[in-house]
Design goal:
This protein is an all-alpha fold. The protein has 21 helices and no strands. The longest helix has 34 residues, at 104-137.
């Protein structure tokens, strides 16, 4: 049975791996040029040091008995296996706390093209993934229809969402889905940076991205630091740091942990209420059960929105420092990534390598096509500078999108950072880890893959047509790709 001491030790071990990873990242140029977060490096190190790699090597070569489980005690692995499902609620609860939440009309005016492009990419990942599930993953590789949701969960949702849905995958008999989604998120993160950088160089050489007055944007990319990315993330609605009388006797970080806890509590109450309604209406006596399978984290996100709206309406928004909220969220995400990658099942990946390769190649092809073909036709001004944000996010991490935008447009002449930030308010509550992402596995299990495929296809076409008709460039003007 896991004890409090085991939990404490597991957290300390994660901290050690993060410290080693940070040191390696500072010393190895290749890690910095790939813009790999320390959490991903630490997670890979934990995987290598655990029973999956080191433990097996020791057993294969009759090494010391004490190392048959690797360097990680079994109790640490048990705690790590449970951490992501818990901490993902912290990450999502913090998404909108401390951010100014404007009206939908204001968001649409500023970020409409980004919303249309991002939604098209996300729903398209479901169409591609579920379509492959019906035509290839099931008939050829024997995977269940639930595998069709892996593409959006791993690529658009990222490591946190993939790990947070572990219980949902297990509940529906597809436990290896978590490992496959985590593998997709890892491949997507690396591929997003590499492919994005190649596209930026190509766009600069062909005149699709204008050179900044200070020189080649690619040179700026090589000088970017972790602090630069933190600043970009904090810029999304961050309030200036202030000291308040209300927190004078309490550490501000502790107070902000309380805000996150309150958002999670609101989300839990919402989820309980919705489950009660479902059980007593359409879900009773063999009906459609969906909400009872919904994890807490998307509702925690809505709880954070509700809390922020209340603070803004009551004039208490100044009590929240977005920078501190980002630190809490970032720390939780680091813990999730190290724990999830450190307990990744190589057996699950190895046993489904063909299906994993098919999903990876198809997902990358769709995302790259969306950037090169759809972005210039949906985003009327600076399509590549702004579309790179959606491309990066669709490959596994929001910060990848921010990074690519910073490389392509270091001075933010396109206004893409503001539009990208506002876009999240109409994006993340639904896909990319939102309500539909969390509900996609139960929906496919309850309704079947075909109805969900039809529904996601209709939504993809809706957003695509909307983007082309409302925001598309003037048909009489030269197309950006042809200029």
């Amino acid at each position: 049975m896991t004890s409090v001491t085991d939990v404490f030790a597991a957290l300390l071990v994660i901290g050690l791996f993060l410290l080693v990873a940070k040191t390696l990242r500072a010393r190895l140029t290749v890690l910095r040029e790939l813009f790999l977060p320390a959490s991903v490096i630490g997670g890979v190190l934990a995987l290598l040091a655990g029973p999956q790699v080191l433990g097996r090597l020791v057993g294969a070569f009759d090494g010391p008995q004490v190392l048959t489980d690797g360097l990680l005690p079994p109790a640490v692995g048990e705690v790590w296996g449970q951490l992501p499902v818990i901490l993902i609620s912290v990450v999502f609860a913090a998404l909108f706390i401390g951010k100014t939440i404007p009206s939908i009309g204001a968001i649409w005016r500023i970020a409409g093209p980004q919303v249309a492009l991002g939604q098209t990419i996300a729903w398209g990942q479901y169409v591609v993934g579920i379509g492959l599930g019906l035509l290839v993953l099931g008939p050829v590789f024997g995977l269940p229809p639930l595998a069709g949701a892996l593409l959006e969960i791993g690529f658009e949702g990222g490591h946190g969402t993939a790990a947070g849905l572990a219980d949902t995958f297990e509940e529906f008999g597809f436990a290896e889905g978590t490992d496959l989604a985590l593998g997709l998120a890892t491949i997507g993160l690396v591929a997003g940076v590499l492919i994005g950088t190649v596209i930026i160089n190509w766009a600069v050489r062909t005149g699709r991205i204008d050179l900044d007055a200070d020189g080649n944007p690619v040179e700026v990319a090589r000088q970017a630091t972790d602090d630069d990315l933190d600043d970009l993330d904090d810029r999304e609605g961050e309030l200036a740091r202030r000291e308040h009388d209300e927190t004078a006797t309490t550490d501000p970080l502790s107070v902000h942990i309380g805000f996150v806890a309150l958002a999670i509590a609101i989300g839990w109450l919402l989820l309980e209420a919705l489950e009660w309604v479902e059980v007593n209406t359409w879900g009773g006596e063999g009906g459609l059960e969906l909400l009872v399978h919904l994890p807490l984290f998307p509702m925690a996100m809505l709880g954070g929105v509700a809390l922020q709206v209340f603070l803004d309406r009551t004039g208490r928004g100044r009590l929240v420092d977005r920078h501190l909220i980002n630190r809490i969220s970032g720390a939780a995400l680091d813990l999730i990534i190290v724990a999830a990658l450190g307990t990744l099942s190589l057996d699950a990946l190895g046993g489904n390598l063909g299906a994993f390769a098919v999903l990876t190649l198809a997902g990358i092809a769709w995302n790259v096509s969306a950037l090169l073909v759809l972005a210039p036709r949906i985003v009327p001004q600076h399509p590549y500078e702004r579309g790179l944000g959606d491309f990066g996010q669709s490959m596994g991490m929001t910060v990848t999108g921010l990074l690519l935008m910073r490389i392509a447009d270091p001075a933010n002449r396109s206004g893409g950072l503001e539009a990208f930030g506002y876009k999240q308010l109409l994006f993340e509550p639904v896909v990319g880890g939102g309500l539909f992402t969390a509900a996609s596995v139960p929906l496919i299990a309850q309704l079947g893959a075909v109805p969900v495929l039809i529904g996601t296809f209709v939504l993809m076409v809706f957003w695509l047509v909307l983007g082309l008709r409302v925001f598309g460039p003037d048909r009489d003007a030269p197309h950006p790709a042809e200029a």
